[in-house]
Amino acid sequence: MTTRQQRVAARGRRLETVAAAVTVLVAGALCAAVPAEPVAERDDRGAGLTMVAEGVSRPDAVDTEPPEAEPFVMPRSAPTRLSLPQLDADIEVFGADAEPDGTPPVPEKDDADRAAWWRGGPSPGQQGPALLVGHLDSVKGPAAFARIGSLKPGAEVVVEREDGSTVTFAVDSVEQYAKDDFPNARVYGPTKTAQLRLITCGGTWTKKDGYDANIVAFATIRS
Amino acid sequence: MQKMRSLATAAASAVIVVGMAAPAFAGGDSGHGGLKLHPSSGGPGTVVEVKALCRDGGHGTVASDAFETSQAQTGRHHDRHHDGRHHDGRHHDDGKNTGGDPRHDDRHHRVFATAKVMHEGLTPGKKYEVTGYCKNHERLTGTFTFTGGVGGAADAGLGGLAAGTESAVPSTTTAAAVAGGLAVTGAAGYFLIWRRRAGGDQA
């Protein structure tokens, strides 16, 4: 026959066992909640670093001359929407002038879900490089061009135009350039075919200077 | 950028209203016939600030094939034009002393107009003449070079993704610390209770 003291002691031991088990379980759960992958990414890329994806950069594809003597071009018409099926993205586009410092137009901070088309240059479908610029991110998170750096060569880029027509481009290459060593001629220079440049930010971000690079997706008209 | 866009809404020429003008100063020391443009070169849509050296007061115009829109800077309000590339310089004399404070009646150029460069139809590398007039119709000239494009990197990121990445570091560290703390606390508590019980049993 057990005494009251023995029963209390037994109950205490059970409670202790349960408490210890709960502690171990909670600790284990918290440890499991710590994501291991971002740590590995930081090791490779550094905090706040945005790079193009592996295998998307094919500079030769941009430099290759077009095979056709008279490539297919379309009359001028402002773009209204941009569709990137690979990224499942559908983005509104608006026309804008160059920034006062002569750089391509960039949407306002509170308009980061849209892309700006530089209306001083060719429209998508006209001969030459049509420039579309979108933010990589807003202050809250990903913006219109957040995943441009992962567009694979051959990926479709569909642009709807004001005249009701649609023009399709195929991505040739996605490249990243330091802002202080930006290849103007390569990105903005004249081309024999109708081309597209999707431009956003990349590289390392600091609070003082923002991003230190641009990511540029080069695409050529397909139809 | 939208602020800049809204600056110029008229077509092709700019009304200038200048407080003071002197024929002797009309040619001035601009080195380019009395008009100074900033920037003096640029691509489509560039907003150009036009300065002039007139001393005799009054008004005038600037005109250029390079400009599609422009807006006068009177110091009080903006006079706008929407009617083509050239004007003859006979309007918008509001009589205000917009540029002629005698204390500043020196050879400094004053901003009297902003203009926006044409989006189409210009030839890259070509210099376009810009013409302006003082009140007495003294002719002023300057040049604008159309460069034909944009240049430089775009500032197209606000840091939300990067900031998120950075903030992820303390959050994971905190979780690990909490987990470790719980485990250590549990173990220590259990050890203390075990010792007390062992002591009680011996007693």
From TrEMBL, chain A:
GO terms for MF: hydrolase activity
Transmembrane intervals: none
UniProt entry keywords in alphabetical sequence: Hydrolase, Signal
Coiled coil: none
Annotated region described as Disordered, given as residue ranges: 56-75
Record-given protein name: Class F sortase
Signal sequence annotation: 1-32
TrEMBL record, chain B:
Compositional bias per record (Basic and acidic residues), positions renumbered to this chain: 81-105
Signal peptide annotation: 1-26
Residues that span the membrane, as ranges: 175-194
Domain of life: Bacteria
Keyword presence, Transmembrane: yes
Keywords: Membrane, Signal, Transmembrane, Transmembrane helix
Region annotated Disordered, chain positions: 68-106
Statement: the UniProt record of this protein carries the keyword Transmembrane helix: yes
Protein name: Uncharacterized protein
Organism: Streptomyces chumphonensis
